[in-house]
Amino acid sequence: MSLLEVEDLTVRFGDAVVVDRLSFSVEAGETLAIVGESGCGKSMTALALTRLVAPPGRIGGRVRLDGLDLTGLPEARMRAVRGDRIGIVFQDPMSALNPVLTVGEQVAEAVRAHSPLGARAARARAAELLDLVHIPDAHRRLDDHPHRFSGGMRQRVAIAIAIAANPALLIADEPTTALDVTIQAQILCLLDELRRDLGMGLILITHDLGVVAETADRVLVMYAGRKVEEQDTPGLFAAPLHPYTRRLMGAKPRLTLGEPPPRQRLQEIPGLVPLPGAIPPGCAFAPRCADADAGCAAVPPLQRHGRAAVACHKVDLAARAPRQIPRWTDRSQWRAAE
Amino acid sequence: MPTSLRYVFRRLVQALPMAFAIVLLNFLLLKLTPGDLADVIAGESGSATPEFMENLRRLYGLDIPVHLQFLNYIQGILHFDLGYSFRQGMPVGELILERLPATILLSLTAILFALLVGVLLGVVAARSRGSLLDEAISVVSTMGFATPLFWVGLMLIVLFSIELRWLPSAGMVTVGADYRGRWDEWLDIGRHLVLPAVTLSLFFLSIYVRITRSAMLEVYGLDFVRTARAKGLTEARVVIRHVLRNALLPIVTVTGLQLGAIFGGTVVVETVFGWPGLGRLAQEAVFSRDVNLLLGIFLCSSFIVIVVNLAVDLLYAALDPRVEVRQ
Question: Where in the cell is it found (chain A) (predicted)?
Answer without folding.
Answer: Cell inner membrane
